[in-house]
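Quick note —
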Amino acid sequence: MLLACVSVAEAEMVERPGRWIGRVNERERLFSWPGSGFALRFQGRRLELRLQTDGENSLVAQIDGERRRIDLAPGARSYTLFDGAAGRHDVRLFKRTEGDVGQVGFLGAETDGHFLPAQAPERRVLVIGDSISAGYGIEGAGPDCPFSPGTQDQTQTYAALAAARLEAETTTLAASGRGLVRNYSGARTGTMLALMDRALPGEARPTAPAPGPFDLVLVHLGTNDFSGEDKPEGFEKAYVELLQTLRQRYPEAPIYALLGPMLGPEPFTEASRAIEGAVASRRGAGDEAVRFLAFPPPPSSFGCDWHPGLAANREMADRLVARLKADLGW
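Predicted structure written out below.
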């Protein structure tokens, strides 16, 4: 009996992760933006999480570098993330789905061993975008399938793939259908300018900018603005102002204005001209760390609703990484 009592290990529990990933509401322990999540490091044999969700959300868990999908059940549930060999283990969880699908709450974590400080990324990348950056339909069978949470995955987007190859981690502020001055629906309210300063996209009002510093900023907006029949009024001026705001917030970060590959030839040319004009304006004002990069249409593969599929996103990542290495020496 004495031997049995001595063999019982003492579990350690925490109410917060080792560190947060992306933009989150730390006070409420909630995350909703695509690609947001948390990291843990522990010494032990087992890790169990307690999470809560209000939508059809799923996560990607990277456990010691091995990738695993976790589909969350509604409400508060426990999930066994690891049950294996004793040792030091690194765990990162990323939200596959975007904010409109719902939010996820971190209720706690428990291990049979003990928790350690979580490892920080080598670089941090801020991404401001729309459905392309959110991973809309990326796992879909083709352009005819409609949106579903199950086919969305931010971790397989061009930005996430490029960041992983550059030992970086993304803070992704992206929402489907949103533009810079005009959304896909035609509405000029509720654009990314209105959402990007919210810890959760569903919050009633902006709280503060995404906390830096960042080593790189990617802006991938314009597809929804130029999807309508008429040109979006005030787009170039708003783009210049956005670039200026980002420079004020993140003075050391190179900024890349991205476009493509979903627009048709004519709107793509018009959008390119406007974005290149905004970049030229900022460079003329002395900000030479602002650049333009296009992903020419059409995508090489399609996910749902004509969005770039997995292969297309890999090619976009290749193009982005090559440019960053050439420009920045990364």
